[in-house]
Amino acid sequence: MILVLDFGGQYNQLIARRIRENNVYCEVHTALSVEKIRELNPKGIILTGGPQSVYNSDSLLPPTEIFDLNVPILGICYGAQAIAKIFGGEVEKSQISEFGKTNLQILADSKLFRGVNQNSVVWMSHSDKICSKPENFSVIASTNACPIAAIENSAKNLYAVQFHPEVVHTVEGMKIFSNFVDICGCNRDWKMDFFASSTISQLKNKIGDGKVLCALSGGVDSSVAAVLLSKSVGKNLTCVFVDHGLLRKDEAKQVEEVFSHFDLNFIKVDASKRFLNRLKGVFEPELKRKIIGEEFIRVFEEISKKIGAVDYLVQGTIYPDVIESGLGKSAVIKSHHNVGGLPDFVDFKEIIEPLRLLFKDEVRKVGRELGLPENIVNRQPFPGPGLAIRIIGEVTEEKIKIVQDSDAIFREEVEKSSEIAKNLAQYFAALTNMRSVGVMGDGRTYDYAVALRAVLTSDFMTAEAANIPFETLNTVANRIVNEVKGVNRVLYDCTSKPPATIEFE
Ligand code: XMP
Hints:
Layout: E1 2-6, H1 12-21, E2 26-30, H2 34-40, E3 44-47, E4 73-76, H3 78-86, E5 90-106, E6 119-132, E7 138-142, E8 150-153, E9 158-161, H4 173-184, H5 192-207, E10 211-215, H6 220-233, E11 237-243, H7 251-260, E12 265-270, H8 272-279, H9 285-307, E13 310-314, H10 319-324, E14 350-352, H11 360-369, H12 374-377, H13 397-415, H14 418-421, E15 426-440, E16 443-456, E17 464-465, H15 470-483, E18 487-492
Parallel strand pairs: 1-2, 1-3, 3-4, 4-9, 10-11, 10-13, 11-12, 13-14, 16-18
Antiparallel strand pairs: 5-6, 5-7, 7-8, 8-9, 15-16, 16-17
Helix pairs in contact: 5-6, 5-11, 6-11, 8-9, 13-15
Bound molecules: xanthosine-5'-monophosphate (XMP).
């Protein structure tokens, strides 16, 4: 196992994922004591990036005893600066902040850079830099703005890089992680099915004879979580599907139909009235998310009272939900309904989130290992707050109908061509809060603009707008303005994430 010590960077789980891609088990932890680290017995440790500055007295640094554990250590960005500081080097605010792609020049032979080109593109994102290296370390790479871009103490197997090898833009990042895995002497024999079997046995031990409620949305994450739980506690699991009235067209029926074929206790709750009531007059995206997050929990609490003696609530939370909701010292991007949207008081002994550390494509792999059908494993994601975050501003029944009908048309047209649909990670319609002037027949209209969004991504942390053929977009636009009352304009969103996000709110 390789241990990742998390100092709050946005990309930290990507580090874990890169290690898992090398078939090595990896866990990410924040602020662990050295005793706990010894218990975990890692074969290597990675110190991540983070928003703090090592020279501030209140910044979190790793326990210095980890350097006596005799395991290889790799520091990335903030982690690299922490190593430099602990060993007597100096870190200061950089004159020039470096954000984005830059050229790295390798200066010395290092096990960390074995097979990496002498000049390659790396991703930088920092405003501090190491300005003097510690004794017994040598500089192994530099960039124009950062002469000390990587250092090592090869005798102690300590490595520190200022750039981010975990981000795809670092062209040879995977090679660097592979080299680190070799330096750590890992066997590379871990597979995703070990995740399923070890999670099932951990859940069995934890829950015993306890009763469990699983929040099931019919999407891949909660379906995989439900199957993991069902394999752990059998009939002590009840899956609850809440129709909050913010689902896609006909979705409630479809989810019910799919899960009626599973050997699961399945309950559907029609809660649309209460959700819509609570959303009346609410415009602000974060408030909408919080209201929906709370209302979900209240529905689950009520069901659990009816069933009686339910200890645990299970959610299919995955890593991007956690990081965007603001983890530790990371910034809040949006409060995913099942993380940052949770109310302060939740009437369950505990919330269990078995997929909390995985990315969407890893969850799909687990789903396949568990034998879930492809139509569930490959379902495009649908956010818990549903259409509420695809309707800018106040949610009304009229707007829900507009977005449902427009979305159904867009999906139907895209799915006519498997060539187009197969590459898209997510595609949907959203309702902008903008009205504009149009002309229909011989009359003036003043109606809504619908926005179409389609993205390419594997981990949903970054995404590109998809290049959908104009013919398809044109057909969709014509159908929407003709078939959906209240819409006279259709726009296509060409923005990538970042700087936009995938959903509109
Ligand atoms: P963003 O909009 O943050 O979306 O780029 C990234 C992915 O997460 C989904 N998403 C959510 N999923 N609860 C969820 O279960 C939420 O509150 C939520 N918000 C966004 C989004 O659909 C995309 O796949």
